[in-house]
Design a protein that fits this description.
Structural class: mainly alpha
Number of helices: 32
GO biological process, one term: RNA modification
Radius of gyration: 32 Å
Largest sheet: none
InterPro entries: PPR_At4g14850-like_plant, PPR_rpt, TPR-like_helical_dom_sf
PPR repeats: 81-111, 112-146, 213-247, 379-413, 481-515
Strand content: under 5%
Protein name: Pentatricopeptide repeat-containing protein At2g22070
Keywords: Repeat
Shape: elongated
Length: 542
């Protein structure tokens, strides 16, 4: 882009207008060289004292990301308008430098709606939604009128934090200002109610909207699918004149999340055959998940082939979904090959646990351990999955070694980790180690959890200490589930306390806890120990 050289007779105002126009063009073309050239000429012609031109220069540097220049120009300006303050405030906020943004905001003589909104937007960008809401409330208390953009952003904050009470108050304010029919504002209201779980008000907002765009429809479809209202979601989808990829993804993902994998595949087939929309990474992630759940390896391979033909980037979430599909659908070797080719980086814990399950099924856990050791981030789920994998393969000493390593190096074990290790001690009938782990569970405040309590009952029973098993059963108190009662009944039966087991079973029935087949086996065993086999069969038919 060339810069016209002003003539000697050109007026001061003409210079300013010319350079302002050039700067606006440079913003559109994102050309930093032109902007710096204009800056040099502004100084050369002594125009750097003019507020209008310096504001344009400040705006240019802010829009093109030259933050150091924004700071320098602002510092050198002899006179600053509210536009000047808002420009540098927005620049700080967008960079996430909120200490500086707050300092600038506090220095503004009279912050306007743009100033306040810039702070709200900045807080939202950092995920500090509570701060954004607090900023909005301060704005109102200071008597500054919000703009449409303010409302859309504070409603996004309310949606993210499910702050329904505040969202309703914002809604009332919007109605008073006559902005409820503005599509972006109405869409933000719709999204806030949907994300906060108020489907009734979401429908009220939707029905009152005279103008609806695709975002309106997609928000309602997504909400219905999320709440399991699949027929309502599909009905709205079918009303849309031209569904976009977000619409298709909302329907497909909704069916997959609700366990209707076959229906998700049907919708996907309809999309391929009747829509101009092309599957994106979200579509393919959901479809691969459906194939995994159905263990449909053949279709999963076809989807993979489509991705290769369409040159779709197989990375991130799509790669994890692909690995998950192959691991769950019986293609563990292919899943392992994908990991070898693409590397361990960004392998999520769901994909890893699926790989682990696949290796356990074929009785070869070593590749899973290699992957586990190579993971950049190993959370408690990954550690627990690996420990469980060893236990399921009968490699009890390896499971215990890994647990000890987890205690030394890894994250704090949770109740599922402790339950898994207790099952190992149950298999080994190792009372001493089991008691040590019980003490660890107490220290971690996990001993009262259902999974740990049930595992402790089984461990103590198999290790010969029915007294400790009884004690744990009593300590679980009101948290007992069907498995808790079943574990205790079986423990009593195995230790010859048949009468106690039958009495416990009767108590279980009085509490309206429905027995399962394993419970009945325990009762029959208890009755056989006290010569009441016929009574045991009768109880099975109660």
């Amino acid at each position: 882009m060339g810069i016209t050289k002003p003539s000697c007779t050109t007026s001061y105002a003409s210079h300013s207008d010319l350079y302002a126009d050039v700067l606006q063009s440079a913003i559109k073309s994102r050309d930093p060289f032109v902007g710096r050239s204009v800056h040099a000429r502004i100084i050369k012609h002594g125009l750097h004292l003019g507020v209008f031109l310096m504001n344009n220069l400040l705006n240019f540097y802010a829009k093109t990301g030259s933050f150091s220049d924004v700071h320098c120009v602002f510092a050198e300006m002899p006179l600053k308008t509210i536009f000047s303050w808002n420009t540098i405030l927005s620049a700080y906020a967008k960079r996430g430098n909120f200490e500086a943004a707050q300092r600038v905001f506090d220095e503004i003589p009279e912050p306007d709606s743009v100033s306040w909104t810039s702070m709200i937007v900045g807080y939202n960008m950092l995920g500090r939604f509570d701060n954004a809401i607090h900023m909005f409330l301060r704005m109102i208390s200071c008597g500054v009128s919000p703009t449409q953009f303010t409302f859309t952003n504070v409603l996004a904050s309310c949606a993210a934090t499910e702050a329904l009470d505040i969202g309703r108050k914002v809604h009332s304010f919007i109605v008073k200002l006559g902005l409820s029919s503005v599509v972006p504002v109405a869409n933000s209201l719709l999204n806030m109610y949907a994300k906060s779980g108020d489907s009734v008000m979401a429908k009220v907002v939707f029905d009152r909207m005279r103008l609806k765009d695709k975002s309106t429809w997609n928000t309602m479809i997504s909400m219905h699918m999320h709440f399991g209202q699949l027929d309502l979601g599909l009905a709205l989808f079918q009303e849309m004149i031209d569904p976009d990829i977000v619409s298709w993804n909302s329907i497909i993902t909704g069916y997959t999340h609700q366990g209707h994998d076959v229906k998700a595949l049907e919708i996907f087939s309809l999309m391929l055959n009747s829509s101009s929309s092309k599957p994106d990474k979200y579509t393919l992630g959901s479809i691969l998940s459906a194939c995994a759940n159905l263990e449909n390896l053949k279709l999963g391979k076809q989807i993979h082939a489509y991705m290769v033909r369409a040159n779709i980037d197989i990375s991130g979430a799509v790669r994890n979904a692909l690995i998950l599909m192959y691991a769950k659908a019986g293609g563990i070797e292919i899943a392992h090959r994908i990991v070898d080719i693409t590397g361990i980086s960004n392998l999520d814990v769901i994909a890893f646990t699926s790989l682990l399950d696949g290796f356990v099924k074929i009785g070869d856990i070593n590749p899973a351990r290699d992957i586990f050791d190579s993971l950049e981030f190993r959370d408690v789920v990954a550690w627990t999955a690996m420990i469980v994998g060893y236990a399921q393969n009968g490699l009890l000493s390896d499971a215990l070694d890994l647990f000890r390593k987890m205690v030394r190096e890894g994250p704090k074990p949770n109740n599922y980790t402790l339950a898994a290790v207790l099952s190992v001690f149950s298999s080994l009938a190792s009372l001493g180690h089991g008691k040590q782990l019980h003490a660890t569970a107490i220290r971690l405040q996990e001993a009262s959890s259902i999974s740990v309590g049930n595992a402790l009952i089984t461990m103590y029973s198999r290790s010969g200490s029915i007294r400790d098993a009884r004690k744990v059963f009593k300590q679980i108190c009101s948290n007992k589930n069907k498995l808790t009662w079943t574990c205790m009944i079986i423990a009593l039966a195995q230790h010859g306390f048949g009468k106690d087991a039958v009495e416990l079973f009767d108590t279980m029935l009085k509490l309206d806890i429905e027995p399962d087949q394993i419970t009945y086996v325990g009762v029959l065993s208890a009755c056989s120990h006290v010569g009441l086999v016929q009574q045991g069969f009768i109880k099975m038919w109660i």
